[in-house]
Structure formats: C-alpha cells, structure tokens
LacI family DNA-binding transcriptional regulator
Amino acid sequence: MASKPSVSAHDVAERAGVSRSAVSRTFTPGASVAPETRERVLKAADELGYHVNHLARGLMRRESGIVCLIVSDAATPYRSALLRELTIHLQNAGKVVMLINTDRSDDSVGQALRQAIRYQADASIILSGLPDKSITQLCLKNGQRLVLINRDDDQPGPLKINLNDEEASSRIALAFERAGCRHVAFANSDARTPSLMARERGFSKAAEALGLEVTVERYGWTGYEAGKVLAHRLLTRKIRPEAVFCATDLLACGFMDAARHEFGLSIPGQLCVAGFDDIEQAGWESYQLTTFAQPLASIAEAAVSWLCSAPEETAMSVPSVLIEPQLIWRKSVRGG
Amino acid sequence: MASKPSVSAHDVAERAGVSRSAVSRTFTPGASVAPETRERVLKAADELGYHVNHLARGLMRRESGIVCLIVSDAATPYRSALLRELTIHLQNAGKVVMLINTDRSDDSVGQALRQAIRYQADASIILSGLPDKSITQLCLKNGQRLVLINRDDDQPGPLKINLNDEEASSRIALAFERAGCRHVAFANSDARTPSLMARERGFSKAAEALGLEVTVERYGWTGYEAGKVLAHRLLTRKIRPEAVFCATDLLACGFMDAARHEFGLSIPGQLCVAGFDDIEQAGWESYQLTTFAQPLASIAEAAVSWLCSAPEETAMSVPSVLIEPQLIWRKSVRGG
DNA sequence: GTCACGCTTGCAAGCGTGTGCAAAGACTGC
DNA sequence: GCAGTCTTTGCACACGCTTGCAAGCGTGAC
C-alpha cells in the first residue's frame, strides 16, 4: 500500500479551481466563504477523499483538540464506567481522547503527563495516582487545563471534582444504627486514597457520635480479593460486627461472598453490608447491595463543560465541584 | 495563565549556542550528533522545560505514533480488560492510544475512522461494530493499518485476530455429555456477532454429533439482564435443559442468578452452566463459573507486534491469527 | 604534504494548515 | 454615475519540526 496517499488542501484547491485559502476556510466554521465556492470545494474534497489534517491544524491553532485521560485500574467496574462516560461526553463536545494507563511504575503519571504535553493536549483529566505538586505545575505551565477527580488536591489551577464522601458515609452509620446494630465496622483497602479515607472518617465519626462500637480494618488493593481477606479479619473477631460498611462495592462483593460461603452468614439477617460506587454487580441478584451511586454523568458533564468553557470564564469560576452521591437502597441492609 | 508558554527547538538552540538542527537531532534516536553538543542541548532543554512537539514531528515524519482504539461497550468487564491490555502493550511499544467510543449511532464506526484519519493515526484497532467494506477500505486507502479483533472480515489488508470459538465450544458439548446431560441448551444474545454465532454453531454441531438434544435461544443485548431473560425462557420449557452453555460470561452470571434465586436450582447439582471470556466475576465465589479464558495478553501482543513491524514484513506475513481459548474448570459443571 | 575518509553541523527546503491584510468585486443609496 | 460599505478571495507568512546536502574539521595512511 502506498504510504503517501495523503491528499492535501492544495490538491483540492487545484481541482476546484480556487485558492488553498478557500479550501481552508471551507472547513473552518465561521469563516467567510461564498456558498458557491464552498460547494465546489466540498465536491472536490469528496471526490478526492480529503480530510483536514488535524496535526497541522493543531500546530497552527495552538489547540489540538486532544484531551488526555490518565487512569489506573481501568479494567475495574467503576473506573471503566467513568471512563466510558467521560469519553462519550468529550466526543460529543468535539474533543478527542487520548488514553494513558498508569498501572505500572511510580513515575508513570509523570511520564503520562509528559506524553500529553508532547502532543499538545489541551487538557488532562486525572483519575489516578497522587499527582504531586511538581507534576501538576508542569502541566499548567505548558498551558494545559487540568481536572482532578476524587483527588482532593489543594492547589489553585486545576478543577477539582469531589464527592461528598464524608457526609454520605455518615448516613450509612445512621442506617446501621436504625437497623439495630451496635457493633459496626469499616472495611477499607490500604490504598489510602483521599476519597477512601474520607469515607472511613465520615463513617467512624458518625458511628461514634451515635454511640456505636466501631472497628476499622484496612488491607491490600481495593478489589474483590481484599474484600474476602477483610471478611476473614473482621468476622473472626471475638465480638463479630453486625454491620460492615465497605469502602467500595468491589470490596463489598468479596466481603459478602466470604461472609456467606465461608462463614455461612445470611445477609442482611445476621449481617448488614453496604458499599460505595454502585457498580453494575451491586445490582446483581447475588448481591443486591445497598450502596451509593456516583452520578457519573454529572461528573463527566462538570469536567467537560469546564474544559470547553472560555478561558476568562474558567479563571473566574470556582475551581471546585462537590457532588452528592445518591443512596441506593437494596437488600443488604435491614430496614430502608 | 499564559496560553503560549511553549518553548521551541529554536529557543533551546539559542541557549545552547547551536543550530536548530542540532536540537532536533539530539531528540532523534540514531541521528549524528557529537556527545558534547548533545549534552549541552539536553541541559538547555531541561532548563527551559522543552518538549518535542509531536504534532509537528508527525507532520514531517508522516507518522504520528497514534493508534486508534475503536470500541463499543467499553464498560463491560471483558471489553475493559482487553482495552487495558491493548493500552499497556501499545504504550510499551512507544505508541499513544486514541480512544473512540462507538456506542451511539449506526455510522459511529465510520465517524470514528474519519476522526482517526484526521489525526493521521498510524493504525486502528477495531473491537466493535461490523465495519463494512467501504469503511475498511477508507482506512487502508489513507495509509492506516487495521486490526480487527473477533470480527471475521474476509478482505485482504487488515490483520484479523480471531479465537477458535467453534472448536472450543465443541469441547463444552463434550463436557456436558460426560456430565450425563441429555438435554442441553445454548443461550445467546441477539447481537449475532461473528464470534457469538461461531460459538453457537460449534456447540450445536458437536452436541448433535454426540446425540444430545439441543435447543438454542437468543435474546437482547449481550449482558447480565439478557441472561436472566434467557433463563426464564429456557427453564420454563416442558423439557428443562440439564446444561446450558452461555455465549458469554455476563449472560452466564445473569442466567445463574435467575436459575438459583428464581427457580431454586442448585448448580451444578441440577443444572450445569458454562460461559465464555473468563471475566473477573466468573471467578467470584458466587459463580465459580467454568468458562474459556481469552488470552488477552497474546491478543494484544499479536496486534501490537504486527502494527509495529516493518511494512515489507507485514506485506508478507499471513494477516490472520487464530488464538486458542483456554478452558478454566471451576464448579459450575459436574466432573472436570 | 596530500588525499581520502568519517564524523558533525548548519542551511534551507519542505510538511499541511490557519489567518491578517489588502485588493477586487458586488451592492446600496443618493 | 459615484462614493461608501460589505463580502469574498488570494497572497504570503507563520507554526515547530525533520532531513538531504554540502561544507567544515580532524585523523591517519601513503
């Protein structure tokens, strides 16, 4: 196959009998071009199979139309759902997404951002890792906009989208108390992500305020297997908790499976379980997990509309959005 | 923030006291540049925070380093796992991935490919939709390489990676027969994807050859809910099948949940169930599903190494790879 | 001393586009 | 018919980079 079949605006101009500028203007919304020439150009372009070269356009406009999505654990139910939502919203806004995975090394987020800069990305959305100050500034210094989701960074510049984890978690404590549970527990991973810690804090404080006995356990990576381990640790205690709030639905699924199949407990009869995220599996018949739904569409909406707004607007807007999770009552907690 | 903080090779050259070419060559592997100048350039580049502009580089080299991933149902466990694997492999190969979602309209794959062409993508990998001939050719005509995964297109040009669905499915028929089942069923979605149909075909043929009674049911979108509906349809028949092969793990999860919680059946005691894909949930305690694992790493490996090989090599190579799924025995089928 | 050779380096010509500027043309109102 | 206004168009430069070409330089062999 020929490696240089590329037809440029010059070719189209020649065929349509106009100047190259006319071609350029035809494909530039809002440019001044006569309807007749426009049509001639479009016809010639179609016949030749012409496509505007966005690399060159990006070079001129100093705006590539590229938005980087920097993500780890992309195959996880919650992350993949958020990823999908963001991708669709960005596409609808005429942006194109560049996906960067940061599962591997420690500096992988830095590497990713450097890559983003090389491609002149207009913006980056970070769903992973703890971007430290230097990295964030590297990004801003190169003229990118930055969105941090559930990252709780306190520097000015990036848009910060956060869930009201703490308040939501306190509502679960109340629900446990109403279900008649005295000994409750929080099952967390050992990732110590800001949002995970906020959930732990919110739940513990509220439970203690209600006079409940609360124990906290942390273990491993935020996934199904860790949930099973946490179940072993918590359910073999002298005083077994009657209700457990898992920091994540994935943890909750592992926890429930271990509780049922290895400890023979009935849920919610002998044990109440709640989770966070409302991943698809939370609604499956085997779990029917009471949990908090993250309004993914709202999150994506907020991120994209900020990215696409005019510079002067974003300079004025409050660079922080707080989103309320929605409690989904199913059958893993008594009452409701 | 300044929107034009971009430092170009010219600036670096000036600071290092060399020509622009020297800077360019410093960042071009294999170019002729004296160690001493190289070092001076690197120092200056670091001080100024210089990054090569890949848009401009792509413009000159006629090779952008961009690979498009065109995908639908990206939030599905199987798809997101494959997506992750591909992304990581591509990154390791020095490529950058552009993600395009095609959940929406009918022509969305066409739109996606057009977008890919505009950004001069070196290649596209299609995990979704039925790309018809015109679209495929559009892609090749513009000098892109194309990889089709589980798409079974028969034109020359693209690399086709397929699973040996038919042969694998026949092994499940045998397993059911050995488990002592006489009436078996195949639960499929109504998507009629080539690979889904191949599984149906392989299973049916093999089951009939073994003298089993086989019924096929198809319904809806390939997801959990469809699995539940399929269970209702198949388990309310006069002669209830003793074993069901679901075209997909997601279908199988829905099927198992309905079979257990709505029909009170024990698995594998009263009903054998098998699936395909080996999604993470298949290994969860609640399912323990016997299924076929897709060697995702091998798939990604094959795709990426073909994409990165020299043109003359790919012209000679057989543009088709057949991959053997691996049977994972768990507890949803008797025997094993 | 000379010549050939190899390694570096600067020059300049592109790559495909957007856009300011000025000129040309069309049209209106008088 | 003419001045004034508005629309359309082409020219030419800029964007940041790569790379062929030829010149410069140092080295070693004869």
